């Protein structure tokens, strides 16, 4: 499919308009907002304690294994590629400290990996949409922790397909096993589950 310059400009304008709307909604409406190829995703429920505790514990365990110049960051800003029309906010981003400097969204090509903790209210966002979006953004490793099932997966090795970039390798794990994310191996023992 060929995209004419007018189509690119229209898509860029559409993305910028959605980004402005998300900015306004974040100030007034609880929950998490992201932009995908389909439009704005709103996870209406704010993450609960098991979700946030999982993200914090995974971040802490990774940082104990990583060198000082790399962080397992759990804050803002978002990760976006305007040309793809995608803006995401991963639960944990593995990134070099030097790549965090500056203003605006993180460039996803600087991320070493992202980690998502599956939302109880919208699991397809993590298991389907982000599996599609993160390789489009060029994020080399995507790890999913699912407190609903006590399992997860690490996806890596981006390759080209007719539908666009996709992860070629998937390594599933169960809570209690060690898991390797990028270069670092951590325990999943004792991670919280949804009741």
UniProtKB/TrEMBL annotation:
UniProt-recorded Gene Ontology molecular function terms: endonuclease activity
Start and end residues of each Putative restriction endonuclease domain: 31-176
Keyword annotations: Endonuclease, Hydrolase, Nuclease
CDD domains noted in UniProt: DUF820-like
Full protein name: Uma2 family endonuclease
Keyword Nuclease attributed: yes
Pfam families membership: Uma2
Domain of life: Bacteria
InterPro entries (alphabetical): Nuclease_put_TT1808, Restrct_endonuc-II-like, Uma2
Natural source organism: Streptomyces filamentosus (Streptomyces roseosporus)
ATP-binding among keywords: no
